[in-house]
Every structure is written in structure tokens, then in C-alpha cells.
Design brief:
Elements lengths: L5 E4 L1 H5 L7 E4 L3 H6 L6 E2 L18 E4 L4 H12 L4 E4 L2 H11 L4 H11 L4 E6 L6 H11 L6 E6 L4 H12 L2 E8 L2 E7 L11 E2 L4 E2 L2 E2 L5 E6 L4 H16 L4 E5 L19 H9 L17 H12 L5 H10 L3 E5 H7 L10 E4 L1 H9 L1 E6 L1
Parallel strand pairs: 1-5, 2-3, 2-4, 4-5, 6-7, 13-14, 13-17, 14-15, 15-16
Antiparallel strand pairs: 7-9, 8-9, 10-11, 11-12
């Protein structure tokens, strides 16, 4: 043993270890271990350490490793102080994985066989009556506990789920086998695939590197329209139209007070509770009823602004909205906010789709600009 109390070993040395005669402690997160791990290793995520430390047996040498070797050094030092014979994989599991894959190790072939041997019975997920982000969270939690290659069939009744689950599959790398919406029921079949671990602590914004992988940063633009003020809405649509004119993919995600922008100006008769009706009466119905964030003066301010814009040849808000739709700007209404505020899809202008948090996050991850307005 070295003075540190433990010994660093290389990936080459680790590959020669007889794992049957050693205790392996994997400090990576469960999702990472599920994608690629060593059979028989004790999974003790560093994020929850030292939970479980007393369960590590002392009758065999202990080999500790994490993703890149930094966390395992600390744990190896702690274990050595507690009397363990400890070895630390100094460059982490990723170097060991590179080594065994590069040497023609059968790990990938074995992994493929495991995937092919997974019973093709589907796991059913009942997400009916759940509201955003409930359905997506339930899908993610279920898949996390299943082996790669497993198939799940999920049923949901929230309209936003149709968009959310497509985006979620795209961003996580899971395979969408089928997606259907009929009679108010959305049914999706998904196969679990090896996906990218999203760990913000290891993300380098300068290089776009995340845990040794590369994120494809796009030039899309995403706007969260939270405000229902006329001036802020005009600014949002001016920027959206400008970005669309440059050939960028633009998503405008409307939530809470911003939903009023998308309401039809005429009254739409839909069944509502007393509270929902009260909300509807107090909120502006459509873009022409929006007030200014400052100097509104009981509506006089907004009329003045509109008059000035017209006199100077500036497009009205309604013209900006129409131009945005014509140029492919994606208008997404947050269904969770709609449910809270008692707004129905029938009350929204044409061209608006329903979405939830996964739809927004999926758009934001491919955008180089995301603005909260």
C-alpha cells in the first residue's frame, strides 16, 4: 500500500483483476450502471454516499471506480481509513470501457444478446388522468427500472402528452414504436434504448461536452411567453418573426397570463365551473384586449400605442401573430396552465398546439437562445 492508504491502478491493471475474488464498488448513478456495468458490482452512487458504506464486506480487496476517477479517489481514501484494502481505478470506468471495447471484448456482443433476450411482453403504464409533468415522469420512472430493449405501452388522456412524449423520446434516445390519439385517449409504445446521461455538473458550455459526449447545439430560438402585457407580447412576436425570417426554427411556449394572447376574441360556449367562469371574465379575451405593463391608463395607453404603431407603419400585434403562423413559428399552449386557469382548447385561435414541460425542454435543448418574457 502507498502512504495514501490505497493504491491507484490503471484500466489495464483493472482488466486483469479476478472479479470473483474482489469487491467492486461502482460510484456512478443507477442510470449509468443500467446502460453499462459490471455484474456483481455494488452500486453506491456518489450522490448518496456514504449511505451503504457499512455494507461493503472486508473479506476481499475492494476496487472503487466512478465515471472519470475524481470521486473514487475520495471514497478510496475514506475506505482505507476504515481498514479496507482498497484499489482506485484512477482514470475511471470510461477508460476501462474504452480498453475492453478496443480489445475486441465481447461486452457489446453480450449486451446485444441481453437486449435480444428481453421478453417482448409490454409493460403497461397507466397515465390516464395525470397532468403535466406526471405522464412523462411516470414513463421515465418505469423505464429506468427496466433493462434495455424493454417495451412499454402507455395510455394518457392529457392532450399535451401527444407532443411531450415525441419530444421526450427524441431527446432521451428512446425509440417511439407507435403513437396514436383517438377518442380522447393517447397510446404510445416505446422501446428503451441506451441514452445519454444528463448531468449538468459535468457540462462544459464552451465545448458542448457532457460526460465525454457531444451535445448538438442548434440555432433554434425558444420564447417562454409568461406575460399577457401588450408591449411585451409585441416584442416577443417581433423577435419571433425576425428569427423565422433568418430561417430559424422558432417555438413560442405560452403559459399562465400569456395564454390570454391566444384566446379567440369571441366568446366560446364550453362547459366550465363557477371558478373557471370567473377567471374567464376577469382575464382579457384575445390580443386586442391586452393592456400595457406600464401607463395603461384604463386601456387608453394600449390604444395610444396601437395608434402610434399604425401611424409609423408598424405591423399590429394581430398582423405579427398572423405572420408568425404563416412563417412556421410554433405556437404551444401549456396545458397545465390551461387547466389551472380554466381555458379550453376550443377557446384558442387556430394553429395552436398543446404541450407540456417536455415539449418546452426539448425545444430549449436545441436552441442557442431561450428567452422568458
Amino acid at each position: 500500500m502507498e502512504e495514501s492508504g490505497y493504491r491507484d491502478i490503471s484500466a489495464e491493471e483493472f482488466a486483469k483483476v479476478d472479479f470473483d475474488k474482489a469487491t467492486l464498488v461502482d460510484l456512478r448513478e443507477p442510470d449509468e450502471v443500467l446502460v453499462s456495468g459490471i455484474e456483481g458490482a455494488i452500486n453506491m452512487p456518489f450522490s448518496s454516499f456514504p449511505k451503504g458504506i457499512d455494507e461493503i464486506p472486508k473479506d476481499k480487496p475492494v476496487y472503487v471506480y466512478c465515471r472519470e476517477g475524481s470521486f473514487s479517489e475520495e471514497v478510496a481514501d475514506i475506505l482505507s481509513d476504515r481498514g479496507y484494502e482498497v484499489f482506485n481505478l484512477k482514470d475511471g470506468y470510461k477508460e476501462y470501457r474504452k480498453l475492453v471495447d478496443g480489445n475486441g471484448n465481447t461486452e457489446n456482443d453480450e449486451k446485444k444478446q441481453v437486449i435480444e433476450s428481453v421478453p417482448q411482453t409490454e409493460t403497461y403504464i397507466d397515465a390516464k388522468e395525470l397532468r403535466c409533468p406526471g405522464p412523462i415522469v411516470k414513463v421515465a420512472d418505469t423505464l429506468r427500472s427496466l433493462p434495455e430493449g424493454s417495451v412499454v405501452m402507455v395510455e394518457a388522456t392529457e392532450d399535451a402528452f401527444y407532443s411531450d412524449i415525441k419530444v421526450w423520446c427524441q431527446r432521451t434516445g428512446n425509440e417511439m414504436l407507435s403513437l396514436d390519439a383517438s377518442d380522447g385517449l393517447i397510446t404510445a409504445r416505446i422501446r428503451k434504448k441506451e441514452n445519454m446521461k444528463t448531468d449538468n455538473a459535468n457540462f462544459d458550455a464552451r465545448t458542448g461536452t457532457l460526460s465525454g459526449q457531444h451535445i448538438q447545439l442548434g440555432d433554434d430560438k425558444t420564447f417562454i411567453v409568461f406575460s399577457g402585457d401588450l408591449d411585451k407580447t409585441i416584442a416577443a412576436f417581433i423577435m419571433a418573426n425576425g428569427a423565422a425570417s433568418l430561417g430559424r426554427k422558432v417555438t413560442m411556449f405560452f403559459t399562465f397570463w400569456g395564454l390570454n394572447i391566444l384566446r379567440k376574441p369571441e366568446k366560446v360556449h364550453v362547459g366550465k365551473s363557477v371558478i373557471e367562469k370567473m377567471f374567464g371574465m376577469m382575464m382579457p379575451r384575445g390580443s386586442r384586449k391586452l393592456g400595457l405593463s406600464r401607463m395603461n391608463m384604463f386601456g387608453a395607453g394600449s390604444k395610444m400605442i396601437r395608434g402610434i404603431m399604425k401611424s409609423k407603419g408598424i405591423s399590429s400585434l394581430e398582423e405579427l401573430i398572423e405572420a408568425a403562423r404563416d412563417h412556421g413559428v410554433r405556437l404551444v399552449a401549456c396545458q397545465m396552465s390551461m387547466d389551472v386557469m380554466g381555458i379550453r382548447q376550443e377557446e384558442l385561435i387556430d394553429g395552436v398546439e398543446l404541450g407540456g414541460v417536455a415539449t418546452f425542454i426539448g425545444s430549449g435543448e436545441t436552441s442557442d437562445i431561450s428567452l422568458f418574457i
